[in-house]
Specification:
Blueprint (H helix, E strand, L loop, with lengths): L6 E5 L6 H15 L6 E5 L5 H8 L4 E5 L16 H4 L5 E4 L2 H7 L3 H14 L2 E6 L3 H5 L3 H12 L5 H4 L3 E4 L13 H20 L1 H6 L2 E3 L5 H8 L6 E4 L6 H9 L3
Parallel strand pairs: 1-2, 1-8, 2-3, 3-4, 4-5, 5-6, 6-7
């Protein structure tokens, strides 16, 4: 058994208008209001953050952003900084595979964003994971090792204690394919966890939460979350329906 507190975070990606956001949150709140043993987070698009914060005031559901820039301000058209986000949310997703693949995110920019988020008082959910090609070539360990080391480079003991890692095999995101519980846990337990111990010491390395993401559903959540080193999930498509997200949360209880 672990004393790491489970977390289930919903990444809405580029979905939900303001009206749809209000509808989803009002359906979700009563289904989750009695849950006090799991950290709950929803990460809507930037445009929905103020409304989300207002609707969730006083609830047990925290708010997160999906991305941020590493500078506090400046000539970065279309970007949002941590200092802009800190009054609207508690968490921020950094280094999601879609950001890496489509928008040029690198290990270096991930590291800059992690530092900026922590300095602004935001809690980073740092994503790592290999592509299908890398997986089939037997490169999972090398890719994940690099992403963890480079993404967390330069963090102090105090800083790293505030982060969450999300292992998301890219080949399992939005494809309907899921790493088996054993496969996912193997990466968490035998790749990510040892790196954290090596970088930050045994006690701290054992305390950092590692989420799994990639086609998590109500039907497979309990088995995934029941593994020794899977501390919850970063949920994509299934977070867009209140009943599905609540069903996944049930798997973490």
């Amino acid at each position: 058994m672990t004393d790491r507190r489970p977390m289930v975070a919903g990444n809405w990606k580029m979905n939900k208008t303001l009206g749809e956001t209000a509808e989803l949150l009002k359906a979700l709140k009563p289904q989750l209001e009695n849950i006090d043993s799991v950290d709950l987070v929803v990460c809507p698009p930037f445009i929905d953050l103020p409304l989300t914060k207002d609707i969730l005031v006083g609830s047990n559901i925290k708010v997160g952003a999906q991305n941020m820039h590493w500078e506090a301000s400046g000539a970065y058209t279309g970007e949002v900084s941590a200092t802009m986000l800190k009054d609207l949310c508690d968490y921020v997703i950094i280094g999601h595979s879609e950001r890496r693949a489509m928008f040029g995110e690198t290990d270096e920019t991930v590291n800059k964003k992690v530092m900026a988020a922590l300095n602004a008082g935001l809690l980073p959910i740092v994503c790592v994971g290999e592509t299908l090609e890398e997986n089939e070539a037997g490169q999972t360990e090398a890719v994940v090792d690099r992403m963890v080391r480079e993404g967390l480079k330069g963090l102090s003991q105090e800083q790293v204690g505030q982060i969450v890692i999300a292992y998301e095999p890219v080949w399992a995101i939005g494809t309907g394919k899921t790493a088996t519980p054993d496969q996912a846990n193997d990466v968490h337990k035998n790749v990510v966890r040892p790196i954290l111990r090596e970088m930050f010491g045994e006690e701290l390395g054992n305390s950092i939460r590692i989420l799994y993401g990639g086609s998590v559903k109500p039907g497979n959540a309990a088995e995934l979350f029941g593994q020794s080193d899977i501390d919850g999930g970063l949920i994509g498509g299934a977070s867009l329906k209140a009943a599905d997200f609540a069903g996944i949360v049930d798997g973490a209880l």
